[in-house]
Sequence to fold (92 residues):
Amino acid sequence: MQLIPCPWCGPREEVEFHYGGQAHVAYPAESAALSDEEWAKFVFFRDNPRGPFAERWSHAAGCRRWFNAVRDTRSYELLAVYRPDQERPVTT
Fold:
């Protein structure tokens, strides 16, 4: 079992959290003007790098707040956790 450090509640078991996709993806300014293809790309296509990746997480069984985490997709190790109003920390 992996412990995930919620920025508000502290370390909790992984089962309390839900993955929310790639972090820092801006919602289209004029979504009604997008073609079906453009909308599908926004909804379904995300980066899938090997290595550090910024993700959104929700502490669903705790404070119910959203936060961002940088996770190494090779090892599943969490490199950083930060609130949505903070900038992504530099990780090595």
User: Anything to note?
Assistant: Strands lie at 3-6, 10-13, 18-22, 52-58, 66-72, 78-82. Residues 1-26+46-92 form a domain with the Folate-binding fold fold (CATH 3.30.2270.10).
